[in-house]
Amino acid sequence: MQINFSKMSGAGNDFIVIDNMKKQTTLTEHHIYSLCMRRTGIGADGLILIEPSETVDFSMRYYNADGKQGSMCGNGGRCAAYFAWLAGIIGDKGSFSANNNRYDAWVTGAEQVKLQMTVPEGFTSGLAANGYNCHFVNTGSPHTIIFTDTLKSIDVEHEGRLIRNNRSLFPEGTNVNFLQITGRDSLDIRTFERGVEAETLACGTGAVAAALMSRKLEKVASNHVRVTVKSGDILDVEFTDRMDEVYLSGPAKVVYTGTVSMC
Q: Which run of H or of E encompasses 35?
């Protein structure tokens, strides 16, 4: 089976994106795991299938690097929208479905995409996990938030894995975000991603979770928060006072295209 793909990056989050509008590509969990494996495969944080939809412009089916179908990926959604724009599936504005939710997206410039997120749920504070004071919110994916003044020195791989696997607090697992406030409307973030099982260069739903929790706890003073991710890119998170409208904006680009053979 020959499969055409695009390798894409959303602020450092990287994805294998495949046009499956004709439903001709079928991948197993092992296929996806092998394709996402770095050094022996294409290498990516996840894989995205762009598929037809009867109600919106297209459907995004997202898989984590472990080969299992994942929850919402914000940067993946922005990459999917940019891929669809390049392919002529959508215009400068389009809509798609993911995990039974509708998402609207806008291509706002060269390699720039704005995505409306779902309404956040489950704001929780005061969770004690592995010696950290944790906060939690679901922004399409579950996210634990930890504030720190020593972001650069934290062993995110080790500490993040411990909290991600704290089944007493998070039976289904969680993404883990360490963040440091850098201004009245800015913060830096590092994320350990569930499904990738490692620190990634960026996480869109994590950036949204960090911005919303920081505003709710009055650690930032603006409804427009600039989030600097590990790659050095900036993701912009904007939201209403009630946090019932939330937008994620930032870079999305095609790194390269290719063809891969699958047995």
A: helix 29-36
CA distances from 113 to 69, 209, 236 (A): 24, 18, 11
DSSP conformational letter for 23: -
pLDDT digits (tens, 9 = 90+) for 71-98: 999 999 999 999 999 999 999 999 999 9
As a whole number of angstroms, the distance between CA 64 and CA 162 comes to 19
* Same structural domain, 28 and 97: yes
Model's pTM, two decimal places?
A: 0.96
Contact criterion met (CB below 8 Å) for 73 and 40: no
Q: How far apart are CA 208 and CA 189, in angstroms?
A: 11
- Residue 4: pLDDT above 90? yes
Q: What is the CATH number of the domain that holds 147?
A: 3.10.310.10
Q: Is residue 127 located within the same domain as residue 78? A: no
Residues 234 and 144 in one domain: yes
3-state SS record for 140-169? CCEEEEEECCCHHHCCHHHHHHHHHCCCCC
Q: Is 36 designated active site?
A: no
Q: How many residues does the chain have?
A: 263
Structural domain containing residue 23: 2-116+251-261
**Tokens representing 129?**
């996990």
Please report, rounded to a whole number, the percentage of residues in the chain having pLDDT higher than 90.
98
* Candidates 36, 79, 134, 203; catalytic one: 203
pLDDT at site 1: 82
- Mark whether 127 and 220 lie in a shared domain: yes
Query: Total structural domains in the chain?
Result: 2
Q: Of 36, 73, 79, 134, which one is the catalytic site residue?
A: 73
Name 190's bridge partners.
178
Other beta carbons less than 10 A from residue 134's beta carbon: 22
